[in-house]
Design a protein that fits this description.
globular, Neuraminidase, mainly beta, about 325 residues, four-stranded antiparallel beta sheet
């Protein structure tokens, strides 16, 4: 499979949206209460296997007991080797991301919901059982959204003007959508595939792009290249605050754990066998940092308890697998 066609061949989201960030031509890929218990809710009883119609994100509960995968029809949860649907409405969640205190998302409401379509920015402090619309409801659907785990800062890619964002581009809020600040995004000149934000310093943001990985230390105003000559499809700031996990594709899929410090060696992580597939989402267990999960464009999902030395498959082409 040619690396330049991985999105059209595998992704089920609209990656061809073109935006202008900060006046420069940039193509943009469009795809808790403050206690650990707030994001750990028992899953509902399940008889038939849970199907992942699409995978729109990946996140652990704050206590590390559950892994959440949002899709077109609500949130699926994996805990203690078993899958089930989470209690709560079967919304079409997009741009799903977690912090220690809450889940943030966007998308479209389920049939019969009284929430406005599209969501704009929404927030849940009870593991997705209920949601609060924070900002831009009825105006925006943020397919690309990332959070700073400890600070609750949220970054989004905005595709069209709305009442709080006068032009398309990269925006950040530290106030749950009350105030949005546009980033200049200087240095980005190609298609953006993914966003990630440092867990402790919301000024540090990483962009995965069609030509590599870019890092900003000033809230997205200026970006410097960190990895080149490859498509970067997803990235995740390690919760140690010192490393970045990077999914890339150049003739074959790769997963790398790289240091944020210049000059330190990067660690190549051995992936499970992926058939014309690549890692689309990465999540780390906040309670046990060696536990990670990945989900792919073809709706495969894997977990590791030893930082990628071994992997267990928990979903295959959208069909969930219990132990």
């Amino acid at each position: 499979m040619r690396s330049k066609t991985i999105f059209t061949a595998l992704a089920a989201t609209s990656f061809a949206t073109l935006l202008t960030l900060g006046g420069s031509g940039v193509a943009v890929a469009g795809t808790q209460p403050a206690t650990a218990d707030a994001q750990s809710t028992k899953v509902s009883a399940q008889t038939a296997p849970v199907e992942l119609a699409h995978v729109h994100g990946l996140a652990y509960s704050a206590d590390g007991q559950q892994l959440f995968i949002p899709s077109h029809y609500g949130i699926a949860a994996y805990a203690e080797g078993r899958w089930a649907k989470m209690p709560g409405p079967e919304h079409d969640y997009m741009g799903f991301a977690a912090t220690r205190d809450a889940l943030y998302s966007s998308g479209h409401p389920a049939a019969g919901s009284n929430l406005v379509n599209p969501f704009g920015l929404i927030k849940s402090t009870d593991a997705g059982k209920t949601w609060q619309q924070l900002s831009l409801e009825g105006e925006s659907d943020f397919h690309t959204l990332a959070t700073s785990y400890e600070t609750n800062a949220v970054y989004v890619l905005n595709y069209r003007p709305n009442t709080r964002m006068r032009q398309p581009g990269l925006y950040m809020t530290r106030t749950d959508g009350l105030i949005w600040t546009q980033a200049a995004a200087d240095g980005l000149k190609t298609k953006i595939n993914s966003l990630a934000v440092h867990p402790n310093d919301a000024n540090i943001v990483a962009v995965g792009a069609a030509d590599g990985l870019y890092l900003s230390r000033d809230a997205g105003n200026h970006f410097e290249p960190r990895v080149g000559n490859t498509q970067v499809l997803a990235q995740w700031f390690d919760l140690d605050g010192e490393h970045l996990w990077v999914s890339s594709y150049a003739n074959s899929p790769m997963l790398t754990r790289m240091s944020l410090k210049d000059g330190e060696a990067n660690e190549k992580i051995k992936l499970p066998a992926l058939d014309e597939d690549a890692v689309a989402f990465i999540a780390q267990n906040p309670a046990r940092h060696d536990d990670l999960a990945i989900a792919t464009f073809k709706r495969n999902a894997y977990v590791t308890q030893d930082r990628g030395a071994t992997w267990t498959q928990i979903a295959k082409y959208g069909t969930t697998l219990d132990k």
